[in-house]
Fold:
Amino acid sequence: MGYKELSEEERRVILNKGTEFAFSGEYWDCHDDGIYRCRQCGTPLFYSDDKFDSGTGWPSFDKAIDGAVSELIDADGRRVEIVCSKCKGHLGHIFRGEEMTPRNARYCVNSISLDFEAKS
Structure:
């Protein structure tokens, strides 16, 4: 599968490691059943069952699909970036130790980095 052509804003976030404004993205308040895929390459990244309301304004998941998301230390050395394992597109960051869920992890993802496929 080829990569999707990205809009200017999608390129700013996915390719240039930008961040969308909190509470502005399409999926931060989505509660539908389905799967979240990488907007750039279509790889399945997160199941809706692993999404939770963190109150932060970004889609938050406490588990990624096995092998779908890679973790990299940010250039500032303080945060851990998450990227699509296939295309390396920027997704957001992972935070651990916040005790928001029993898994103790929060994948904080930009909506613009995702496409949602509803469960049929």
User: Anything to note?
Assistant: DSSP finds one helix and nine strands in the chain.
